[in-house]
Amino acid sequence: MIKIKNIKNKNRNLGLELLRMILSFFIVVIHCCNVKNKILFKLLFEKPFHVSFFFLTSFYFSYNIFLSRNIFKIKLRFLRILIPYIIWPMIIYIINNSFYIFFGLSLYNKKLLFKELVIQIILGRNYHQVFWFQFNLIFISLLFTILSFIIKEHFLLILQIIGIIAYYLQYSSLNYNIFFSYHDNIKHTVGLIVEMMPIAVTGLILKSIDLLEKLRIIRKQSLLLIFIIFILILHIDFIIRPKGLLYPGILINIGAILLFSFFGIMLINEKLNKNLIVIISYITKYTGGVYYLHTVVRNIIIEKISLVNNRTYSGALIIYIICFLVCFIGNTILRKTELKYLFY
């Protein structure tokens, strides 16, 4: 029986954790399903707020690390990102090539070259494309860290200016024109820095004003207003989206703010049943690991399970559950080492 006291939920926002899980499943759906539902298609492809939400959330909860310039916590942040970023591509490279050499089997229908591994680790995108996100997370986090030490008093002001410049580069199409002709490994990694930058800055700004704490004061009114605005921006295109690479424009940022705010104040831990807290705490684990592994799991089982091969939602759920179980087993074995970050 699970002991309630062992669940560390004091500093966990269960609403945001629940949204992480939902959006992680959405990402599996995007990469593994044929999406025919019009509303879901709009939410996943036309207005992909899931990407901006994860990016915004990462920087929201890192604001105090940058502001305090705590070396230990900064190192820990980079460790959490770099371990999966470097080690998973290496593991995939070794497994793919071993199976190809000894059994004639491959995740990518070929033997991966060492050059491809190097490109993957440098850019976060080659044969394991999902790490473009971590590439941007690492690059922007490093930039913010350097600026936090160089410009102490005006750190947030400078970042706001950088965010505005990034939007100028988007809406003027300069960023698009520079990177559009490049190979996808450049275009969809380095080229996305300008599109992700304002979202990262927004995360820091929202934490600097303690947004969630302020919204909790008028919680019911906030939930209603946020819901109405979200429905409006989902169905009405009243904000211009500039020509971009994948995630341009301020609308992507606004959608992330609304999702973050709504789910951030939706659940109040103190009013929840303890058993419900336990359930939410456990089923929302390993969303990072699911993201890292879902395309690999898909490639392994796609020929063996018809629901996956037919790109059904049930197939996406099977992939999610397998990834979750792999992460659970891996974390159980490695939880006392830094390799546990492979699964979070």
Question: Which helices and strands occur, and which strands form pairs?
Answer:
Layout (H helix, E strand, L loop, with lengths): L13 H19 L5 H9 L2 H12 L2 H6 L2 H33 L10 H10 L8 H19 L4 H17 L2 H6 L4 H4 L5 H16 L2 H7 L1 H17 L14 H17 L7 H10 L3 H15 L4 H4 L3 H22 L10
Helix pairs in contact: 1-14, 1-15, 1-16, 1-18, 3-11, 3-14, 5-6, 5-7, 8-11, 11-14, 13-14, 16-18
Brief synopsis:
With 344 residues, this protein is an all-alpha fold.
Task: Write a structural description.
The protein is mostly helical and 344 residues long. The chain has one domain (4-15, 49-285). 71% of the residues lie in helices and 0% in strands. The chain is built from 18 helices and no strands. It has helices at 14-32, 38-46, 49-60, 63-68, 71-103, 114-123, 132-150, 155-171, 174-179, 184-187, 193-208, 211-217, 219-235, 250-266, 274-283, 287-301, 306-309, 313-334. It is globular and about 60 Å long. Mean pLDDT is 94; it is low at 1-9.
Q: Shape, please? A: globular
Low-confidence stretches: 1-9
Structural class: mainly alpha
Task: Give, in order, the helices and strands.
Answer: HHHHHHHHHHHHHHHHHH
Number of helices: 18
- The radius of gyration over CA amounts to 20 Å
Number of domains: 1
- Span between termini: 24 Å
Strand residue content: under 5%
Query: Can you count the beta strands?
Result: 0
Biggest beta sheet summary? none
Give the averaged pLDDT, no decimals.
94
Helix content: over 70%
